[in-house]
Amino acid sequence: MREINKENSVQEQENPWVSLGKDLLSVVAVLIIFMVFSKLAFGLWTPMVAVESGSMEPHMQVGDIIFIKSADRVDIITNEEGKNTGYMSFEDYGDVILYRPYGEEGVTPIIHRAMYRVDAGEPMWENGPIAPYSGYITKGDNVITNTHFDQEGQISYEMPVKDEWIIGTAQYRIPYVGYVRLFFS
């Protein structure tokens, strides 16, 4: 009996491909389980984004990983509504949303706070231009670098964020883990 065990362990040691195959299958299984869990819990196959800029400081830092819940699973609460109801997310009123500027695929999504919603034909801000359609006015939390709404600058110039541009809302933050992703991009 002792010889057989010794013999089997020698055979496994002699064939590194078997060990590598098992390791790869384990990694693939864990990834599949994670993706299925992500889809069930957050409504997205890949519910995480790495923060790439300081526009949301001090509430989100460069290198943080942010978990996102799909837009079709949440009711977005704006900063304006949050002030009235007491709802806070990431240490300030209202939801932080992840959206595609101008709805374009293939561009880096923006993660900023939904400040308020405007209807078509309303001024987008006091004495501002008229909104061409209904949508959200957004802004980063960093009071030093984000003194204007996204719609006043290059991010979404004079275009409120349409519902269909929104990927989801920020739910959780894991500090520093996103540096790994940023390193490879």
From TrEMBL:
Record bears the keyword Hydrolase: yes
Location within or outside the cell: Membrane
UniProt key word Oxidoreductase: no
The protein's name in its UniProt record: Signal peptidase I
EC main group: hydrolase
Enzyme Commission number(s) of this protein: 3.4.21.89
InterPro entries (alphabetical): LexA/Signal_pep-like_sf, Peptidase_S26, Peptidase_S26B
Natural source organism: Methanosarcina flavescens
Transmembrane segments: 24-46
GO MF entries: serine-type endopeptidase activity; signal peptidase activity
UniProt keyword terms in alphabetical order: Hydrolase, Membrane, Transmembrane, Transmembrane helix
Cellular component GO terms, alphabetical: membrane
Domain of life: Archaea
GO terms, biological process: signal peptide processing
